[in-house]
Specification:
Layout: H1 15-23, H2 28-41, E1 63-69, E2 75-81, H3 84-97, H4 102-107, H5 110-116, H6 125-144
Antiparallel strand pairs: 1-2
Helix pairs in contact: 2-3, 3-6
Length: 146
């Protein structure tokens, strides 16, 4: 099966590397810049994949999230956002969930990593709500593939 919208998150960039990247960032501004750097590494979705059914509601910026159940039983997630911070948040989520089975994705608590990286507590209320909308959409996608 051909992968739609490949990206480096979860393969070239893993959670241990994210923890290392953010461990040296003590100021919110530095974490903010790191999120923007991650956003730049997430390739833009081709326009044909920015379908209305992939667009999430409840986010500050427009966000698209799609997925594929691969032949080996793992999930490939892909997405994009018009906002740099939201796109960086999406990149962190993709790092955690890429290549996992539906059962593994459902069992995962992605917010723990955001707390560990020192990001979750710094997000505005609307971005926190957007993060929770993304996590909810990811869990629903995984549940639909069981």
């Amino acid at each position: 099966m051909q992968i739609l919208a490949p990206h480096p998150f979860g393969s070239d960039i893993n959670t241990d590397q994210l923890v290392e990247m953010f461990s040296h960032k003590t100021l919110w501004e530095d974490r903010y810049r790191q999120l923007i750097q991650l956003a730049k590494q997430l390739p833009a979705l081709p326009e044909e994949l920015k379908q209305q059914q992939l667009e999430l509601r409840g986010c500050e910026n427009r966000v698209w999230l799609g997925y594929q159940l691969m032949d080996n039983g793992t999930l490939h997630f892909y997405g994009d956002s018009e906002g740099r911070i939201v796109k960086g948040i999406l990149a962190i989520l993709l790092t955690q969930i890429e290549g996992k089975t539906p059962v593994e994705v459902i069992a995962l608590d992605p917010l723990k990593l955001f707390e560990q990286l020192g990001i979750h507590q710094q997000l505005s209320a609307s971005r926190s709500q957007g993060l929770e909308s993304l996590v909810s959409a990811i869990k629903k996608a995984a549940e639909s593939c069981q």
